[in-house]
Write a structure and sequence with these properties.
By secondary structure, this protein is α+β, with helices and mostly antiparallel strands. It folds into 2 domains: about 150 residues, Alpha Horseshoe (Serine Threonine Protein Phosphatase 5, Tetratricopeptide repeat); about 90 residues, Immunoglobulin-like, CATH 2.60.40. The strands form 2 sheets. A 4-stranded antiparallel β-sheet has the order 1-2-5-4, with no helix packed on it. Strands 3-6-7 form a 3-stranded antiparallel β-sheet, with no helix packed on it. It is elongated and about 90 Å long. InterPro entries: YfhM-like.
Length: about 290
């Protein structure tokens, strides 16, 4: 009995090492998807039960199901194939794509399908044997993550897919999603009530660390505006009360997510006078008349 437990432990260790080896040389990594991948494989094996067919036979049965437009039946067969041939990246990718073709019966099933599609695509990517397979898996993964409204990982997956292989449809999807959910300017504020006023611009992602932002910010009347940055905010310092300023943020201002500001933006800012206030020096009292 002890020997059996030890043997199972060794097998588990080897399997974990194999998963780590797959992930070690891949550019896209997410712990949540890696955990989901482990759970999905176990779940699929449980759902499949005892399978007496070979992977080749299951593939033929799957093709026949597709010809009958039996997508749900094909999905079951793809799951059985994954249980028999877990290293087949193409089968995992086909499983992920099939999920997108099935009309969910309700919102709960829609959520379930999107989670399964993203996890299956992640497994396909991790087990892909070449750059072309990686690109295809990342494209499907990006689409699935976008359906789950996980914008940043969706954008990263689509960008990495395009780094591997340029595809017009994927490029269009990436550019549209980047415009809507990528690195962008969200808002700005003017701090007029401080002794030294400033205008601050808020972005959707953290700004590049230790970057010189002067080439990307133009303040009319000065060549080198005083700038400070912290996380998602960039501020133009040293403004004066009662003055008007024109500030231009130039395109390609850098972030930490391998995206730059997509287009320039100009702001005409007025720094109002400070609000009146009363301050007592030392101990003082206001007495009734």
């Amino acid at each position: 009995m002890i020997g059996l437990v030890r043997a199972m432990s060794v097998c588990a260790t080897l399997a974990l090492g194999l998963v780590s080896a797959h992930a070690a040389d891949k550019a896209f990594k997410r712990d949540d998807l890696a955990d989901s991948a482990i759970r999905l494989e176990a779940q699929i094996k449980t759902e499949a039960g005892i399978i007496n067919k070979t992977a080749a036979t299951l593939k033929s049965d799957t093709d026949a199901a597709f010809k009958r437009s039996d997508l749900r039946g094909a999905l079951v067969l793809l799951g059985q194939t994954a249980a028999v041939a877990p290293e087949d990246s193409g089968n995992w990718l086909r499983l992920a794509k099939t999920v997108f073709q099935i009309r969910p019966s309700d919102n709960r099933e829609r959520t379930f399908f999107h989670e399964r599609a993203s996890t299956a695509a992640y497994i396909a990517y991790q087990r892909a044997a070449n750059a072309g397979e990686e690109a295809d898996a990342l494209a499907v993964l990006g689409s699935a993550l976008a359906e789950r409204k996980l914008w940043r990982p969706a954008l990263d997956a689509l960008r990495l897919s395009l780094d591997q292989k340029e595809v017009a449809d994927v490029r269009g999807q990436y550019e549209k999603l980047r415009d809507e959910k990528g690195f962008r300017l969200l808002d700005y504020s003017v701090d007029s009530d401080s002794a030294s006023p400033r205008a601050c611009f808020q972005f959707s992602e953290d700004l590049a660390k230790r970057a010189d932002f002067n080439p990307f910010v133009a303040l009319a009347g000065t060549d080198t505006p005083a700038l400070t940055s912290e996380e998602k905010q960039l501020c133009v310092e040293g403004l004066k009360h009662g003055e008007r300023y024109t500030i231009n943020l130039r395109a390609v201002l850098p972030s930490t997510v391998k995206e730059t500001l997509p287009k320039s933006a100009e702001f005409n800012i007025y720094v109002r006078d400070r609000k009146p206030f009363v301050r007592f020096t030392g101990r003082a009292y206001v007495l009734p008349r």
